[in-house]
TrEMBL record:
Cofactor binding annotation: Binds 1 zinc ion per subunit.
Keyword Lyase attached: yes
Role, per record: Reversible hydration of carbon dioxide. Catalyzes the reversible hydration of carbon dioxide to form bicarbonate.
Catalytic activity as recorded in UniProt: hydrogencarbonate + H(+) = CO2 + H2O
Name this polypeptide is given: Carbonic anhydrase
Species of the source: Micromonospora deserti
UniProt feature, compositional bias: Low complexity: 19-31
Length: 243
């Protein structure tokens, strides 16, 4: 079998009737989708990206339809470009970005569209260290002064994560970011019955990842179900031993 991320990687089992079928060899199961992202990030960190699916042939191939293998609900930070850090191309990722990866009806509707209509098997909540939205919420909580305009909505959405972190005795900013990522994963599943049903049926998984701005690495913070990442943990150890 080809290694995830290599040209020739084999697709997973066929999707159930009524769900779109990927026709380009893209992953069709949560575990394989996660492994594909993981492998792409390793290439990016190593400075050896493949830049797959970024040519004119791919552009033409996806013009009439899309079968993304992962939804990325990420922070809007300009340094967090999903297609770059996961070394992917056109039609691979369905990306939704907001400051602090906060959720709202539009975000949840976009996720539900990708999962239930396009058949995307993996949803990733992508945060990062030194998150400005988390820092702004932390400052607002400490000073008792909320920012003006619509920025207040961003801060208000992050505050429950700060409260959870405080209850868990977490004070470091980047550890609070991890709590916020996990909180977003849980809130997404609590807020979307459609997504929760796909996860319960085993057709989809939701994973929280944190990106390190300087190193370029992603690491897993949360996963529902946990088995969605277990196979890749073994892959990571095997690749490390072979290096």
């Amino acid at each position: 079998m080809s290694r995830p991320g290599s040209p020739g990687a084999q697709p997973g089992p066929e999707p159930e009737p009524g769900r779109p079928a990927a026709t380009d060899g893209a992953p069709t199961t949560p575990t394989r989708a996660f492994a594909e992202l993981h492998a792409g990030n390793r290439r990016f960190v190593a400075g050896a990206p493949h830049h797959p699916n970024q040519d004119a042939e791919r552009r033409a191939a996806v013009a009439d339809g899309q079968h993304p293998f992962a939804v990325i609900v990420g922070c809007s930070d300009s340094r967090l470009a999903a297609e770059i850090i996961f070394d992917r191309g056109l039609g691979d990722l369905f990306v939704v970005r907001t400051a602090g990866h906060i959720l709202g009806p539009e975000v949840l509707g976009s996720v539900e569209y990708a999962v239930t209509v396009l058949g995307t098997p993996l949803v990733v909540v992508l945060g990062h260290d030194s998150c400005g939205a988390v820092q702004a919420a932390r400052t607002a909580a400490a000073t008792g002064t909320a920012p003006g305009g619509h920025l207040r909505a961003v801060v208000d959405a992050v505050l429950p994560s700060l409260q959870r972190a405080a209850a868990e005795g977490v004070d470091d900013l980047d550890q609070i970011v991890d709590v916020h990522i996990a909180q977003t994963v849980e809130s997404m599943l609590d807020s979307s019955a459609a997504l929760a049903a796909e996860v319960a049926a085993g057709r989809c998984a939701v994973v929280g990842m944190s990106y390190r701005l300087a190193a370029g690495e992603v690491r897993t913070v949360a996963a529902v179900p946990a088995g969605a990442v277990s196979a890749t943990d073994g892959l990571d150890r095997a690749l490390g031993a072979a290096a």
